[in-house]
Design goal:
Blueprint: E1 6-10, E2 27-38, E3 45-49, E4 55-60, E5 75-79, E6 82-83, H1 89-98, E7 105-116, E8 151-153, E9 159-162, H2 177-187, E10 209-211, E11 219-221, E12 232-234, E13 241-249, H3 260-263, E14 277-283, E15 287-294, H4 297-308, H5 322-332, H6 335-341, E16 342-350, H7 353-358, E17 364-365, H8 366-369, E18 372-377, E19 386-392, H9 398-409, E20 415-422, E21 436-441
Parallel strand pairs: 14-19
Antiparallel strand pairs: 1-2, 2-7, 3-4, 5-6, 5-7, 8-9, 10-21, 11-12, 13-15, 14-15, 16-17, 16-20, 18-19, 20-21
Helix pairs in contact: 4-5
Length: about 450
């Protein structure tokens, strides 16, 4: 027996589903998320495309097997867990036809219900329904409470969709709905921002998580690359172990998006500074994507010498491996040198053809293509050292913007490898070796937390 649908009680100032519904100030909008199990065969639904994009039910025929379950005005958001919000009605019709012989098809819809404020019925619940696997908030490893103002990126890449507080509580007699929303929001502040779980994750069907792919997936510069540019070899083991990843949305109320290790103790579920960590922070219009890597002790020693004037003995550079020299010169060098050697190798092992073709493993000196800010934070008050690179993707070139737009649009169906290597620029730094990589599995921005105010 299917569980009852979840209700989303939206206070009038909220803009969740603002692209789909007219949130007039004298209404309380109830947006209900419903799973419909459709049988094989024709469904008798007349679909159209909403003016703001996405498929919408225009009519339900009398002989439809879904009569009484689906109604005109329902917004279709997924089919068998495939996000269809960016598709038009023709694409969704074809998708349903492709599955016409399946024993069942799960169609997830959002339905608007409204009633005037001041209605005699005073008891309402506030809850959130996620779309990645449609798991209950209590069971999801990524479920969280959020403050008002969190956003999902819209078609332009800018945040437009507010998220809802994840809890259940009734409104006291005589209490205004807005007051209840604010009270719940204030009471749900988290000490730590929930971090992405590590793959595999049963509850989300391996979505919205991270892993560390094999290092041999990457071809890097070999011994003779400067003589023969075709001399690419599989990388040796990663030099920095991946610690985790976070997708965090931003709003007008969020604090700074740079130097996050120093500003927010809550990132990586509060453990970002529990060990020396290298942070790569990609800044977008609508949020940040953060990758965390553990810095081995030898490199921490060089950072201390560079920033703190530490007098501890350091190994002679001539005794080090070529890739070790390259990384040390990056860590202790000038920002210009860092920008000239910080190299990103993005790959898309799973996703739509257009994304895989564009994000194909071609290396890019990311420091030369994006405004990049570097910062070092010494160990103090029980927090370990941290070196951070903040890369502002909002200032990328045309090709970069296209790649980012595609990845954002298909975020829920894309698996992305974010590989980092320090470029070897002379024979003493070759062959290269991958610094580290984080694989991001099909992120759902509806499940992401919001960066708090400072």
């Amino acid at each position: 027996m299917r569980p009852p649908p979840s209700s989303l009680c939206l206070h009038p100032a909220s803009s969740l589903f603002a692209d789909y519904y007219d949130l007039s100030p004298n209404k309380l909008i109830m947006a209900v998320v419903v799973d419909i199990i459709a049988p094989p065969g024709a469904l008798g639904l007349v679909l159209g495309t909403h003016p703001q994009g996405g498929p919408i039910v225009q009519d339900v025929r009398r002989d439809s097997p879904l009569s009484g379950q689906v109604q005109a005005g329902d917004k279709i958001i997924s089919v068998d867990d495939d996000d269809v919000r960016v598709l038009n009605h023709s694409n969704v019709i074809q998708l349903l036809r492709d599955k016409i012989t399946n024993n069942e098809r799960r169609i997830t819809i959002i339905r608007e219900e409204s009633k005037p404020q001041g209605s005699p019925e005073r008891r309402s619940s506030i809850s959130r329904r996620t779309l990645a696997g449609l798991v209950g908030a209590a069971k999801s490893p990524r479920s969280r409470s959020t403050e008002p103002g969190s956003h999902e990126p819209d078609e332009s890449g800018r945040p437009t969709v507010n998220k809802i507080i994840s809890c259940h509580e009734t409104i006291d007699d005589g209490e205004d709905v807005n007051e209840c929303t604010n009270r719940l929001s204030n009471g749900l502040h988290l000490d730590h921002i929930p971090t992405l779980p590590r793959f595999p994750v049963l509850e989300t069907k391996d979505r919205n998580c991270w892993s560390e792919p094999t290092h041999t997936n990457f071809g890097i510069r070999g011994h003779n690359y400067l003589v023969d540019p075709k001399n690419k070899i599989p990388s040796g083991p990663y030099l920095f172990t991946a610690r985790g990843a976070d997708l965090i949305l931003t709003s007008d109320k969020s604090g700074p998006r740079t130097e996050i290790a120093e500003t927010y103790n809550s990132i990586l579920a509060g453990h970002a500074r529990s060990t020396p960590t290298f942070i790569i922070n990609f800044i977008f219009d609508w949020g940040i994507l953060v990758n965390y890597f553990e810095i081995p002790a030898m490199y921490v020693s060089f950072l201390r010498a560079r920033y703190e004037g530490s007098n501890q003995d350091l190994p002679p550079m001539e005794n080090l491996q070529p890739h070790e020299r390259a990384i040390i010169r990056f860590l202790v060098g000038s920002d210009d040198h860092r920008n000239a050697t910080l190299k990103l190798i993005p790959k898309c092992p799973e996703g739509p053809w257009a994304v895989r073709q564009l994000v194909n493993g071609k290396p890019a000196l990311i420091g030369k293509r994006l405004p990049t800010q570097y910062s070092y934070h010494p160990a103090k008050d029980g927090k370990q050292e941290c070196f951070e690179a903040d890369l502002d993707t909002r200032e990328t070139d045309r090709v970069g913007k296209k790649a980012i737009s595609l990845c954002r649009r298909y975020m829920t169906s894309v698996t992305l490898d974010v590989g980092i290597v320090i470029e070897g620029t002379n024979t003493s730094e070759l062959p290269e070796q991958m610094l580290g990589c984080v694989r991001i599995h099909r992120l759902d921005p509806l499940m992401a937390p919001t960066l708090p105010s400072r």
